[in-house]
## 1
Amino acid sequence: MLKLKYLFLFYTSIFLLSGCGGSGGGGSIPSKQSLSCESNPEPMTSTICGTINAAANMQFDSDLNDINTPFIDNSSFIEAQKLQNFVTVQGFVTKSPTREFPSLSHDRSTDRFYNKTDEKDVFQVQLQKGQSIQLQVVNFETLEVSGEAFSGDIDLSLYNQTYDLIARSDSLDEFEYVQAPTTDIYYISVSAWTGASKYILQILPASIQNNVIQTKSTPNSMSFEPNQLIVQYTQDDVFKVANTEIKTLHDGISRPTLAFINEAEAFNISANATPTSSELASLNHLSYQKLLTLKKLKTLKQQSNVLNASLNYIREKQKTPSDSFYAYQWHYPSMNLPQAWDITTGTPDTGSIIVAVIDTGIYSAHPDLINKLVSGYDFIADDENSGDNESGIDNNPEDPGDGQDLGTSSWHGTHVAGTVAAQTDDNAGVAGVSWGAKIMPVRALGKAGGTSYDIMQAVRFAAGLENDSGTLPDQRADIINLSLGSYGFGSVEASLFKQVHDMGIMIVAAAGNDNTSAAFYPAAYDGVISVSATDFSKNKAPYSNFGSYIDIAAPGGNNAINLNGDGQPDGVLSTLVDDSSGTKKAVFGFYQGTSMAAPHISGMLALMKAVYPDLNANIVDSLLVDGSLSDDTGASGRDDIYGYGNANALKAVQAALKIANGGSLPPSPPILLASPSSLSFTNTAQATITLSNEGDGDPEVISASSNNYWLNVSPLNINDKGLGSYQVSINKLNLSDGFYLSSVIFTFDNAPSLSVRVSLNVGDIGSSGKLANVYTLLYDIENDMVIQSTQGINNNSESIQFSFTDVPQGRYEIVSGTDVDNDGYICQLGEACAIYPPTSQIDPIDNTDLETINVEMTAIILSTLNNISEQSARKPTQIAIKRALEPSSPITLDKKIQR
Amino acid sequence: MKQAAKLLLISLGGLSISACSGSQLVKFSVIQQSNQCHIQAPEIVPLSSKKEQAEFIKRYSLFKAPETRDNLTQLFDKHAQYETLFIVAQGQKSSAGYGFDIQGDQAKLDNEQLTLPIFFKSPAQDAYLAQVMTSPCLVLGIDSNAHYTSLYIDGLEINLPE
């Protein structure tokens, strides 16, 4: 039976074959001894027995059409079936009783849903932010009955714990998907729109979503007016559309018009009056209205007299902070910050992003900064330059002013800090680029500016390196902003900046304000992002330096003009101090300069790091070069005025988010490997990771850490470079049942950091799969017929045992699978299937001279969904084998069909 | 300028103008300083009228505390009673560190040219400097009774109408 063997080539699950009490026909690996596999009393016959295991993470809908499968109703929120959050589910829904569908294979009356519907399956699951759920619709009995009568369609909805409709995917396509916007407990609703269908539901980890989404449809935005639609009817039908269910604002016009859904009529007239609709209407009426609106939209789109129909979306403004003077901060929309703020405002899931502002110090009492500061330091060693009445360096980065007289100080550090991360959305003052970042004020500029040495000490402190203060910050800075500079090159400085860069810390510096191409430092040092300045029109600001060292451009302002019509100079508005009266007062003011451009970039990097905590200087370099941080401006490609272009915060945050969600990381010369590359904890609490460098370079491990409190890592046996083995341990305390993902993060001195994915199962919702009712067929190769069939012992277990007795000597194959839709065929798309032998390279079962043969097989769900590296779902094998209608009754395999 | 007649009267009183080695000394005061005056070029600008003063105050006190504008208005009004007000601007500079070195409060009046002991200050070359564009200026008041036809400050000169 070559055909059968060919079909089985796709199966690679684990199969064990051995003789029970004798030599096996093909395998030498000991098998599980089945309790039911006893020696056969007839000398010329054998017993073929075995175990069918469920693939990991495989589950089944608890109300399948197969009446032999245990039944637990899951058609309402109250009865929602609980799932783990990394799973593949085989399921079945039907809009109508299945008696309405003809059957060519068997008596439909054996269907569980012969006389009733199964319109909806509801699942409850704890999802992590970014996890996606995708659904493949597998039409019911398409093997038997062609044509449109069975063009079943299923929709997918996601609700939160308070039954708010969070997302809905309701295309007419084969695939649907939705995504969890936040970490929370959700309800997943799988509902039949038409017909009856099997389905495969996959819940995927957030980190691999980009690789698996197959639908072309986009989930609907939930921001729309309930019970309203915009409809355009065909010319001939504009006067015929009035009905009791929907009423248009303007009758008799062919242009798009607003249409109102009569909720009560729609509920009564349409097919919406299901028990689950009633349940949702009572649990969350707005959700129900939105669902009703989406359903009505889908219906209208399928009507021939409707040219076009759409939701009446509420077009909300992009995230706009409430700060009093935000209207004057033209420089934020200029780099698409409001759109970026829709993705993140800069607060990471854990911890804080810290931006060190090495500058004139800080006016810490400023209301827009007072709650945004972490401890800093004052590294101005010269007392006259410092002017703070303290001897030498000290731990107080307060800015005493850099002017000789009242009113003449720049309060430069306060202005820069405000741009990076002023207190935002607080109805007062100004907004900062990153709402969530913290400022580490490090003072290095005094009345006479700063010296190389003082600035180097400041950089070392910010980076967590040994310095003259004898102290280190509690948490080193993620980003260092240097809105300062001069034209002198220093090799010691250059070395320090490279060292800090290679630690992963991002360094941003002002390009200088002399409209010259002369190299300006530290901006021109390797490893430092050099920022030139632009005006309101995104053109080079007249003062901005340019040249080969420019990396990127950002708003620096031009106080000489007012192109934006706000009545104020087009400078950068931020926090300032007014001491002209002799008392310091918190004020705001427009400044211009590359000093103002640099903190826009620092803040933007802080936003990126908030969505991708592993972001480091090397990755940023790569993203910069490939244009992911900016819009190409000026000459094509990199140029000496704008570098790689004008900063675009939206692109930058999206790029970071893409990497965070599994996108490719920029290349690096050293190839650092962790073995294993991922860890999965269920019952154990500890594991070991071995770290090695398989590439060039000589990277040294700087740190080994995790990004979740439940995950710890510590060195076990490492060399002087930190390479070797690390112990990883987990702590399940305070974790609710579910699936968790985190990472162990290794950082290196001259290589990108390395993350080892760690998954954790907590509670009794484990990763073991579950089997529904399983039919197992014994196929006689030589006589081309199924000689025995059996129904699996159904105990909702991870494995099912089977046994065929009195099997004549011969050569056999075993096919085992579920019949989710009860159509009489197993091993169809959307159903679990296990086959022995799995490949043509393995011989079939030959029971000659054997009393017993024991086989172990693993069932997987047949799917066209992309393989997600787990064994629970596979590419289509597209076979269907008619199972015995009555257990143990022989049936020929002539109904075997390949689609 | 109508200071000539008044000059005589005040000189007789010996209050704020005094003779010194063939030249006279005229008292002046620095009313306000800032490094962000938004004046592009180095220049001396009279603040002769209330309107000019109000415009300067408005620009200077933008986004500052409300009392700053009020205080400045009161200060200007007070000085304008007996002084003539001028803005002395250093012009736009490419960094912080610029400003004025004010050496005393007596200007030297010589041949109707009034020279003020105010000098423009620049930062040290190659110092690391804050990369903010600045435009330092100061507002000074010169005794209204002094007669002079030109005003000189560190290379800047303004000729005043008779």
## 2
Amino acid sequence: MKRVMRIPPPGLAMMQEQFGKSIRTPFSFSTGRFQCKKHAYSDWAAESINPREAQTGRDRLAVYNEQYWYRLLTVLQNDFPLLAGTMGLWEFNQLATAFLDQQPSRSPYLQNLPNGFVEFLSASPNFNIPRLVQIATLETAFHNAFHAPTAPPLDPAKLSARQLEMLAGAPLVFQPWLSLLEEEWNLMECRTGLVEKGIETPIFIARKGFWAIFRSGNEVEWKELDPLQFNLLNRLRSGQPLGSACEAMAENLDTQEVASLMAQMPSWFETWTRLKWFQQPLLEGLIDGHAEVV
Amino acid sequence: MNRIPRNAIGLGLRIPHYRHIFTEWPKVDFFEIITENFMGDAPLPKRNLERVLSTYPVVLHGVSLGIASADPLDYSYLERLQTLTHMTSTPYFTDHLCWTSAHGIHHHDLLSVPYTEVNARYIAERISEVQDFIGIPFGLENLSSYAGFKESEMEEADFYNRVVDLSGCGYMLDINNVFVSSVNHGFDPRDYLESIRWDKVLQCHIAGHTEKPDGTLLDTHEETVRREVWELYGHAWKLSGGFPTLLERDDKIPPFPELHTEALRARDYQVAG
């Protein structure tokens, strides 16, 4: 089909730019409540709108300005319920406003709105607090486990002996929906308490935890990992092949820990592949995930 | 391809109702989905949609096409939309007479344009291109709007009719939106309805709205349908001789039986003229 490069009517692009800029104008938080900064709207946009009765063009733009922010702040509150609950809505909305002001949506899909939020929080001079960053990372992992695409999974049963041997020396690529997280507080417990039981006031307890958050079938699931397993998975994620990751870990472990690692590794690997955490690797002679018949 | 009877009454498919639908399988003429919620990579929405499709006809209603945007048409979006039309066998797809993005920034809102002949022609050409690409009829929905442009050369109804005429698409007439805009801009909603070419109406929406303290009406879909909107719906039915009717509710969503009962109130107003 022929795709036409159509030039929009004169003035339409400018109108939409000026109108868009005006309705994205962040609220003022200085008076203790949300307030539209009508004076900050584009003069051109305000002048282009018909006043009606007591309402000026700026008053009419304010309706859109309010709707824009209410809608998008609500989306982020829903994506980050524990973060919003921990910070309080007033603080959270200021953070989310600063984020969207700096990085407005560039996707037609609202599910992409949180992209870049954790990085923004981590770089924020006011909110870069380790617990908040870890909560946001955890909630992003849940969002990702639901929305990310799936690649064809690794199935060792379909590999030849030679390919299995090659696999030990090849980097393993994780599914886009799998996240590995280390927490320093009981954040997973607080989040599930809030989302599943409606416990709105989290009680944070300092406690190390290691988690995999992933998709199984159509559902989002999470699984606590022991530190050795977490360490090994992190090495695999960084691109180390399985064999060298085990060797590198062994250098920093005592004899007992090395024995434990080697004893548990086969069953871990069986679990990871059963849960389809790895993508099908690019191995010589592998066609559509099946060993080539020679 | 599914057929939606002219007297069908449907509901917007919403997540809080899944449990009821998948256990009770209530008798509903058809469901309408927000297309963007099923165009991503997440498998769960599509799995739930497959279950709905096993029993009910489904039509597609989008919010992000941006047919009036000065930005170029997004063909990656259109390809995903086309895939969804194939999956659902929808007889038509609908979206709004609005823009949503400017210079690549998406506002996730339905924003209007000045009602000028040159804008009508530009939008109509884009509709023809989209309709040709997707391959099934397109229904264009009128907006609830809160601001009118000094540059406009015609009334909203004339602009809407002009775009439909030039493009050859159908109407997705939202009767609540007609009422909301009539209050916000001071026109007679019955005149609006009387200008519509009813043989080209693919479907109508009804919904609730909210009144701000200053009297401005907002198209929030968070309340029940107001009496004035039902009366306008009855007037539309008299003028038209029938169309598929869809009740939209997006916030403060009541239990499924309650919402379905509200949608079925449409029968009380379906009196032929």
